[in-house]
Amino acid sequence: MRVGMGLVKNEHGVWHVRKKVPKALEAATATVTGASKLRVSWLKETLRTKDQKQAKVRAKPVMMKFDRVLAQAEALLAERPLRTSLNEKEIRQIADYFYAHELTADEELREEGQGSDPLFADIHRQLTEAGVEFKTPFDPHFRNGSGLSSRMMHKIEEDVTIALVACPGRCHGRPLIADFGV
Question: Domain ranges in the chain?
C-alpha cells in the first residue's frame, strides 16, 4: 500500500520510506551511502512502525536525509577546476607554512626532551621478551640525563636531510642548517 511522501507498507504491515534516485546520480549515490553495489536506484529505509499516522511523522526526517544524500551525490559529480600550476605567491605561502610547521614540530620535540625513546624502549622490550632476534645501533636503556638521545638526534638529522633535498639552497630566503655550519 502506498501513501504520499514515498511511504510504502510492506507485506508485514511495516511502513518504509523510499525515494527514486535519478539515473545520473545512481553511481555517485552508491559512493555516498557506502553501498556494496555499484549503483543505487532507490533510497529505502524502514520506519519501524505499523501505524500510518506515526509513519507520516517519522518519514519527514528520513526524506530530508535522502535529500542530503542526493545533494552529496550531485556534489561528487560537479566539475571542479583542475589546477596544474601555482604562482610565486602560492608557492611562498606553502613554503612558509611548511617552514613554520617544521619549526614548531622541532621545538616541541626539543622541549619534550625524549621524542619517541619511550616507545622505542617498549618495542625493544616486547621483541626481546618474545625471543625475536634483531640488531639496533642504539641502546634503548641509555639516558644521558638531559636533552635528546643519540637515536633521536639521528632521526632529526634524517628528517632534515629529507627536507633539504626538497628545498636545495635556500627556501625563499630562509637560512638552512647548512648555512650555520651544522
Answer: 2-77, 88-180
